[in-house]
Amino acid sequence: QDIGQAESFKILSDLGKKVVEQDLADMRLPSIDIDQLLSRDDLRGLVRDDFNSADYETAVFKAFRHVEESVRSKAREPASSLGVSLMSAAFSPANGKLKHPGAAVPQEQDGLHQLMRGAIAWFKNPSSHRTVPRDDSQKAAHVLAFANMLLDLLDECA
Predict the structure, then answer these.
(1) What is the rounded distance in angstroms from the CA atom of residue 145 to the CA atom of residue 123?
(2) 89-145: per-residue pLDDT in tens?
(3) C-alpha dist (Å) from residue 22 to 35, 52, 54, 137
(4) CA neighbours within 13 Å on the CB side: how many for 85?
């Protein structure tokens, strides 16, 4: 709002100026409703604003930090237990603290173990150490949906 004008008068932000300067054919409107995509209130509340602001790197980082914190809590691991090591302490078929009831054989438990290790190593760790360019809303939405699924799997573990 321009304080020198009437209350209803607004000034375009820099982003707004870029948008109106684009050719209509080049404009893309977000078509992903994050509230419809994510079934978990806890995750949705963490990432909605960042996703809707096109800050996909932050949204993905927050989602996987939440996965990490949720695993730590459920496995009753100390705060010093982090990342891939935490996932091994929680899900290792040999001595992990958490087991999924759907894992009928050790190889299936190992599959969950590797899935969780890989998810943290690939989606959370890089953003912890450097800027990871994420500018594709659809790819970011897929990654967030994956975090949603991992949290659902975690909820089923005992």
Answers:
(1) 12
(2) 999 999 999 999 999 999 999 999 999 999 999 999 888 889 988 889 999 999 999
(3) 28, 20, 18, 19
(4) 6
